[in-house]
Design brief:
elongated; 438 residues; alpha/beta
């Protein structure tokens, strides 16, 4: 009996140990389940906030006319990310984004796109394949969640990227002459008929210079030195200055064909020089470098002034952003005789006559030895490059002219003339696609 009692006591002890181990395991599994559920919920909420912010920012990047709106995109990304972060939606926006501890932006991502400071490394932008701003990246500020049994904490963030893909179908251009940086008028003068003159930064003239605008106004967003004779008097702009009206228009296509020297009757294609062309067929002329002086008229053409790669007999066009040198082809106005050209009649570049690569830093001149008359849009937006009137001739434009920096020379009795378009309507841009990419 003693022996049997001893074995029965031993079985009870073993059972107690088994029950204790089982209970401990169940407790641990239960705690892990709770903590993993909390972590999963935290990740879900953070990701939802990041997704909402990225989609809102990308969706607001372009308006219905295809105009870039970076400030609006930044504000929407911040607003919708915080609004959808359910645990901190009541926090002030300033406090919320001060919590950001994301690393500095990776290569290609910027937190100051075109000088629009997002104020945080958690909101960054990236350009698309066509060189236009297209992507928004949002990283939510970190949240701590308890680790195993509260003994440690780990940070939870949401990361999302969204892309807006604009489709070009038409443009609503708010200015006849759009200067994206300074207009340094000196003693020169401009006359604009049927539209506005917009200067994103400073406006200066000497006592003999000035701007005469009929059917519009002269508006600046920097400083005006209050000299010269301008009618009406320039006005200081309200709110944000206008964005590049053609900012979402992809650059003209470039083929890998070798560029040639133009001579006799020229057809659309790649050229190192078009000075020797005696006539131009309709189409896009991709010009890789050197000075471009127009000596004969042309109709239905687009002159695309870009950069090059190669040397000798094997020079090919290349976008200035990826070329060895950003100094590309330079327009030098008309030659010794008056010249008139008109832009493309149809297609995505309908109404455009001159398109300077956005990365081309060569100085451009709309004025050469004689009068250059352009029926169509002239687009040379690089704010690091100057557009001027470097010759004794004159420029007469019919259509919008967008330049980065405008510098005038010459007497006021030979003004640059800007007139409302008389060519086919420019195509207008509207957003085509919006999607999360990460």
């Amino acid at each position: 009996m003693v022996h049997l009692s001893y074995r029965r006591s031993d079985d009870k002890g073993a059972l107690a140990i088994i029950v204790a181990l089982f209970a401990t395991t169940v407790f641990i599994l239960g705690a892990l389940t709770v903590e993993l559920g909390a972590a999963r919920e935290g990740h879900r909420a953070a990701q939802a906030a990041a997704d909402a912010g990225a989609l809102a920012g990308a969706g607001a990047m372009y308006n219905s006319s295809g105009q870039l709106r970076l400030r609006t995109a930044i504000a929407r990304a911040k607003e919708y990310a915080q609004r959808n972060d359910t645990e901190r939606s009541g926090m002030s926006a300033e406090t919320y984004w001060e919590l950001c501890d994301a690393p500095p932006p990776a290569a290609g991502w910027e937190n100051e796109p075109d000088g629009r400071d997002t104020g945080t490394d958690c909101i960054t932008f990236r350009r698309g394949e066509n060189g236009r701003w297209a992507k928004v990246r949002v990283v939510t500020p970190p949240k701590d969640t308890a680790g195993f049994f509260g003994a440690a904490t780990r940070k939870i963030r949401g990361v999302a990227e969204a892309e807006s893909t604009p489709r070009v179908t038409g443009f609503d251009v708010p200015c006849l002459l759009c200067v994206r940086d300074d207009l340094r008028g000196g003693g020169g003068s401009i006359t604009a008929t049927g539209g506005n003159v917009s200067i994103r930064d400073d406006l200066t003239f000497s006592a003999t210079g000035g701007a005469e605008v009929t059917g519009g106004s002269t508006v600046y967003w920097g400083d005006w030195n209050e000299q010269g004779i301008s009618l009406p008097e320039p006005a200081e702009g309200n709110g944000s200055p206008p964005e590049d009206p053609f900012g979402d228009l992809p650059p003209p296509p470039i083929t890998a064909d070798t560029a040639r020297v133009g001579s006799d009757s020229c057809a659309a294609g790649n050229y190192t020089s078009i000075d020797g062309c005696t006539s131009f067929g309709p189409g896009i002329y991709v010009i890789t470098g050197g000075d471009v002086r127009l000596t004969v008229g042309a109709s239905g053409v687009l002159l695309y002034l870009t950069c090059s790669q190669g040397s000798g007999s094997d020079i090919r066009p290349r976008a200035c952003s990826s070329a060895e040198s950003p100094i590309g082809a330079a327009l030098r106005g008309a030659g010794t005789q008056p010249v008139s050209i008109s832009g493309m009649a149809t297609g995505p570049y309908q109404g455009f006559a001159v398109f300077v690569d956005r990365g081309n830093s060569a100085r451009q001149s709309l004025v050469g030895q004689s009068t250059l008359e352009v029926h169509g849009a002239v687009y040379a937006p690089n704010t690091a490059a100057t557009v001027g009137n470097d010759g004794p001739g004159q420029f007469i434009g019919y259509g919008p002219v967008v330049v980065g920096d405008l510098e005038l020379a010459g007497p006021p009795n030979r003004p640059m003339l800007f007139n409302a378009a008389d060519n086919p309507t420019l195509p207008a841009g509207t957003p085509e696609g919006l999607r999360l990419t990460k």
